Amino acid sequence: MNKNGFTIIEVLVTLIILSMIAVISSNILQSSLASESESSERLNAIKELSLASSILRRDIRQLVNVPIKDFYGNKIYGTFISELGSENIMFTTKVKSFSNDVSPLKRIQYIVEDNNLLRRQYFSSNPYSADDYISSTIINDIKDIQISFLYENKWHQSWPISLITSKKIPTLIKIEFIVDNKEYNWIINPDIKYAIQD
Fold first, then answer.
1. Tell me: the pLDDT tens digits for 95-135?
2. What span, in angstroms and rounded, lies between the C-alpha atoms of 148 and 129?
3. What is the C-alpha to C-alpha distance for residues 52 and 175, in angstroms, rounded to an integer?
4. CA distance readout (Å), 142 to 31, 103, 131
5. Can you say whether residue 191 is alpha, beta or left, with left for phi > 0 and alpha for psi between -120 and 50 degrees?
6. CB-neighbour burial class of residue 127 (10 A; exposed 0-12, middle 13-18, buried 19+)
7. E-assigned strand segments in 5-75
8. Could you give the CA distance from residue 106 to residue 127 in angstroms, rounded to a whole number?
9. Is residue 41 predicted with pLDDT exceeding 70?
10. What is the Cα–Cα distance from 77 to 162, expressed in whole angstroms?
11. What are the pLDDT digits (tens) for 67-106?
12. Bond preceding residue 170 cis, omega within 30 of 0
């Protein structure tokens, strides 16, 4: 006698096999999505740091060794300034302007606020208002930033370090910091050999 159809056991075995395939496929898909998301986050973090490095290096390589004044017009001691433990550097650099009637020289300040590295660009090289700037965040969630300056084969934690160096730019600038529990160490060469003359 010829019977058509499946037995209940065959149907149950088929359902168990299909369930196992569905569970395995689901786990593989979830793992792939998590891996893709993690890779995307890492790529975005690398892009952010790469852009920040390019902006900082550009500003320092276009640095101009000229006297700096405070917001009252008084001359500041130094042409490139970073006070001890301040997480802050200030200098004058060339920034392209949309108009030839505007000086390309602008004061730039890098400062850490709320664990973010900010770039402040003032509208002139010696502004008269402390609020006369545009600000952008170039690194988020930055920790343990340390800025050092090389002069005569020795690293210093502030700049200028003497009357002589107040008219000079450091030989090298080193910026060490932590982002996402990874340590970074940037060394930038301003390549400015001359000192200003009074």
1. 887 767 778 899 999 999 999 999 999 999 989 888 989 99
2. 28
3. 12
4. 29, 33, 24
5. left
6. middle
7. none
8. 9
9. yes
10. 10
11. 899 888 898 888 999 998 888 999 999 988 776 777 889 9
12. no
Please list, in sequence order, all residues whose beta carbon lies within 8 angstroms of the beta carbon of residue 150, skipping any fewer than 6 positions away: 156, 170, 171, 172, 173, 174
Which residue matches tokens 């030989």?
171
When pLDDT is cut at 50, 70 and 90, the band that residue 2 belongs to is: low
Question: What is the three-class DSSP state of 37?
Answer: helix
The three-class DSSP label of residue 93 is: strand
Architecture per CATH, domain 7-198, reads as Roll (3.10)
Three-state SS letters, 59-75 = HHHCECCCCCECCCCCE
Please report, as a single letter, which amino acid is at residue 163: L
Residue at 92: amino acid letter: T
Is 167 in contact with 131 (CB distance < 8 Å)? no
Tokens of 180: 């996402």
Indicate the burial class of 105 (C-beta count within 10 angstroms; 0-12, 13-18, 19 or more): middle
Q: Is the per-residue pLDDT at 197 higher than 70?
A: no
pLDDT at 3: 61
Amino acid sitting at position 86: S
